[in-house]
Description:
Layout: H1 4-41, H2 52-91
Helix pairs in contact: 1-2
Amino acid sequence: MFNGYGASYHEQRMQQLMEQKQLRDFMRMYSTLVARCFDDCVTDFTSTKLSERELACANRCTLKNMKLNERIGQRFAEESAKLMEDQAKMGA
């Protein structure tokens, strides 16, 4: 009962769901990063501006977490490629 239109609709819907999940994951990661770096770095609430120490800490914290997430993404891609390669070998 699936024609080309139905399959295309389902593919588009799956793509939309994947994009929504990626956006939620990114927002969760961003929110976690902000909370972690704020909690670790901001200690003086007597001023509306960050001190030099707080700003440096926040910059280091952000950079460290971004590098961590980049590395995790790389490892995930490496492991996914390896898994697909192993599956292809088993299917051959």
